[in-house]
Amino acid sequence: MWTAVGADSSETPDRFDSLEPTVLDARISEAVNRQLAHLSDEALVALAARSEQSALAELYDRYGRTAYGLALRVLRDQALAEDAVQEAFLAVWRTASRFMPERGKASSWILTLVHRRAVDAVRREQRRRADSLELAAEPSVAGVDEDAFLRLQRERVQAALRHLPDAQREALELAYYGGFTQSELAERLGQPLGTIKSRMFGGLARMRELLGEPGTETSWMPTT
Fold this sequence. Notes:
CATH superfamily of the largest domain: RNA polymerase sigma factor, region 2, helix turn helix motif
Strand content: under 5%
Order of helices and strands: HHHHHHHHHH
CATH topology of the largest domain: Rna Polymerase Sigma Factor, Chain: A
Structural class: mainly alpha
CATH architecture of the largest domain: Orthogonal Bundle
Shape: globular
Number of strands: 0
Distance between the termini: 70 Å
Largest sheet: none
Radius of gyration: 26 Å
């Protein structure tokens, strides 16, 4: 308990004496969070590069919900989407020192890491499912279950995708599995719309050659 201190007293009370440690920690944390809230995304990434965990937490507060929505849109599975977001923010923590603000906004960089982790998860799931499926070399549609035939078609598409350059494959996979329009892809990837269209048309032309099926461009082309 504090005692009254008169004008002639030589004792000066510490205003933190009556605070429990947890209360003091909470107030310090709140003060730090208020300071971080005024910083730019790029400044927070710079702090994360210096192992400031509070900066990473602030970035997650700002973009965690958006990141989860993006991952869920690609994966269509809540658990897988949560894992993708966790992996992406772990990548932010580990590679923050490599971020170069002159190449783009921190928010675009973070969301790019998220959708790349989501696409990686899609590929893992596809490989897992493909490994469990035994396919005949030349199946007859009449003698094969419809679901098995559709899985075979998807496997052919995946095999063709693996032959594309990374940029074309990424754009096609996000459009096909994530349902992104060309304009959305341009925003997410931080590229001009013309560049995205070029990647899409180039990739689709190559896919048509690999699959040997006319009209591939029309069936794969997302809207703008």
